[in-house]
Structures are given as structure tokens and as C-alpha cells.
Amino acid sequence: MSAAGAHATAAELPLWRQREYMLLWSGQVLTTLGAQASGIIYPILILALTNSPLQASWATALRMVPYLLLSLPVGALIDRWDRRRVMLVCHAARFVAVASVPLALALDMLVVAHIYVVAVVEGALHVFFNIAETAALPRVVPARQLQQATAQNQAGFATASIVGPALGSWLYQAVGRGFPFVVDAASHLLGAVAVWRLRTSFAPAAARPPRPLREEVAEGMRWLWRQRVVRDMALVTCVLNGINAALPLLLIVLAQERGASAAQIGLVFSLGGVGAIFGALLGGVVARRLSFGQAILLSVAVRAACLPLFLLCPGPWTLGAVYALASLFGPLYDVVQFSYRIALIPYALQGRVNSSFRLFAFLLNPPGAAACGWLLEHAGSTVATGVFGALCVLLALAVRLDPAIRLAVHPHARVHDVAD
Length: 420
Prior knowledge:
- By secondary structure, the chain is mainly alpha-helical.
- It folds into 2 domains: 192 residues, MFS general substrate transporter like domains (Growth Hormone, Chain: A, Up-down Bundle); 206 residues, Growth Hormone, Chain: A, CATH 1.20.1250.20.
- 80% of the residues lie in helices and 0% in strands.
- The protein has 18 helices and no strands.
- Helix 7 crosses helix 14.
- The longest helix is centred in the middle third of the chain and has 30 residues.
- It starts with a helix and ends in a 14-residue tail after the last helix.
């Protein structure tokens, strides 16, 4: 069946009855669950080995570095390669990398340098996998259902972000230090099976004469920069992610100042996850009732309103409730801007444009977290909250005044360049 015919047939079915989408979605949710189960254990395990918070922090940082360094060239390579094959190779390589940790533990040979290497390898492979999976989504979902598919993805990932850390920490304490990594490795095997069973072709759009990688990367960046809405959303997402990167440390300090225990601090983040799940479930419905600009402004404005409310919270339950409200509209933002972007980008440019967008989107994450730490240490939680709250208000104002975002209309037409 042609791709166009398959999309026409798929458009008549709800997502949960679409075999190709459900395979792609279930594999992603499983691997996200595994990654969340082991991700929380990396710093805990290093602390157990070294008793050094500084060394523990490096594991988290090293997993983020590959995205900043590799996203642009990987985006160009993904547009050259079969995306299904890329996802399979990434699953296999990540299985080997993660499985090496419990093996080294069993042999009493695990050292911190080994964990760092696994963190870097995992981070690099995630770049390849994430860009390939994003570029593959328009092949299995009709353009009119991209918002709904994005909302379902967000719901699955939000659920995994709640269940995964709890599962990982329980396994670490009750069963053994290596078992969270066993679960993570097994999730990659299951994810590989799901990708292997896909029938859709994810080959490059058309054979092209080879060009220097730099030219192909530049082509994706130029496309993004010439599309006013996509460019402005990349900049808005960059600032918003910088603010979001500050929230975990800010919430921990605010909760500690209110006498919260470690378990109660965990409750704050669990409530935030619950808000994200409800937001993901409602995101597709709300997105259909609001314009593009209204949905983006609502998401940013609610986050701006919640930041000063944190200072009025007397304890962890109220902190968690406000954090749940702030998280409620995060998935709506992702549903609207992500579905708009992938519906607009030509298939042959999906990898390069999405990697360019992500480079902008994640650029301020490390500075945002570092600035929060500096402000908390030198000026206190009230000033830190005020600074990030003011920045969020300015961002909401910029969104409101941006005519490209305010007047944008979602491109419901079929994804460009899908071959018959």
C-alpha cells in the first residue's frame, strides 16, 4: 500500500487501533520507563561509591553534553539513513552499555569512570534515537492526528516519569544495586522488538548525490530560520527550558526551608508528575479548542503565575499542588508546538530541522540550572524565585506581542514530501 493510502486508512481509526503508531509508542514508553528507573540511580550509586555530590553531579551533566555537541550533525545523518535501522542499532548499543553496569557490579569491578563512560554513551545514543524517532512519527501518523499522537506520547512519558524513579529506587534498596540497570537493559530489548515489527518504510525520502555534512546541516538551519513561527518557537522554548531547568533545585530548597523531609520532597515532584499526566490527557482536546497562539500563551502565562505562588506555600503539599498546576499546561505547549513543527517540515529535512530546533531548545538548560544555584547560594530563595518569575512574565509578554505566534494556524495538510 502507498504511504498516502496507508495514511488515509489510518486517519479513519483512533490511534490505539493503529498498529504502526502503537508499536512506535509502546517501544518509546517502555524505554523511557527503563531510562527513568536507572537515571535516578546513577547519582545515588556514585554517592554510595564516593560519598561525593560533585562526582555524582557529573553523571547527569555528561548525559546532557552529547545533545549539545551532536544534535546538528546527527540530524543531517538521520536524513541520510533508514530511521528504523538507526533505532534498532541504538536499542542494541544501549542494551550493551547499560547491561555492563550490573555485570561490573556482580563482578565487583565497577568504578566511577565506568559509570561516566556509560552515561556519555547513553547520552550520545539517545541523540541518534530521539531524532530518528521524531522524524519517523509523521510516517505512521496522519497530519490531522499529530496533535493527538503528541498528547498520547506525553501521557506515556509522564506516567513513566512517575513510575520509573519509584521503581528504580525500590529495586536499588530492596533487590540489589544493579537491578534498576537490568530493567533499563531489558526495556531496550523490548523496544527493539517493537521497532523491528514495524512495517512502514523509513528509508530516506529520495536518493541524493552526496554532499558535505556541513552543507546539509546548514540547509536544516536555514529552513528553520526562514520559518518565522518555527524560529520564534525555538527561541521561546530555549528561554522556557532555561527556566524549567531551575525549578527542581528551587523546589528542593523551598521545601527544605519549610521543614520537608526527603520523602515529602519526593511528594512534591510526584504531584508535579500527576499534573503532567492530566495535562497530557487533556492536551489534545484543549489544543483543538484554542488557537496556536492562545495555547502557547496560556502555557507560559500559567508557569509565570505559579512561580511567585511557590513563595506563599506553607508546606510540601501546597508546593506540590502549585507545581502540579504549573506542570498541567506543559504538555499542551509540547502538543501544540511539536505537532505544528513536524507537520510543516518536509520529510527529507525532518532530522536536520528537528535537531536544529533541539539545539536552540536545550541551549539554556545548563546555564539556567547554574544560575539558580548561584542565586540560591548568594541571594536566597525569594530572590531566585523572583528572578525566574520575572523572566517568565517577560517571556509571556513576548509571546503575546509576537504576531507570528499569535496569528499562526496549524498546518493540517498532509506532511510534505511523503512519497506515494
